[in-house]
Sequence to fold (143 residues):
Amino acid sequence: MRQPLSPQSGANKSRRVELHIPAEPEWVGVARLTAAGIASRLDFSIEDLEDLKLAVAEACNCCIQNGGDGDLSMACELQSDHIAIAVERRGALAKPGARQPASGDDAELGGLGVFLIRALMDDVVYSSDQTGTRLTLIKRLGK
Fold:
């Protein structure tokens, strides 16, 4: 049986896992399950893991819809007390003439998906510009 990470097991050092998938909706499930599997190495509750899966799916959908012409990249960094997940799609905006790229903390950035992600995660950083779209999600243990 798997043991959760703890300070005694050397979990103070960061562990990073990267995933690259096609920027197509049918691949979002792979990202969801990968993030949940990685997060399960910590002692998150079932509810927190479900929130994390939903937030990752929304982040992937946001990147697919809002920008970039490349694949989706997801990097999960595991610490002893939190997980940080960066979802990104690099490259020029996929839809010329689409809404203007934005960056910052305005509630309307990224629409309902980003609003939902912010409600589920402890910290979220969102940016979309001419270099692509990126969301960084942080979920801490015990929150």
Residues 55 and 117 are 5 Å apart (CA to CA). DSSP finds three helices and five strands in the chain. The longest helix spans residues 46-66.
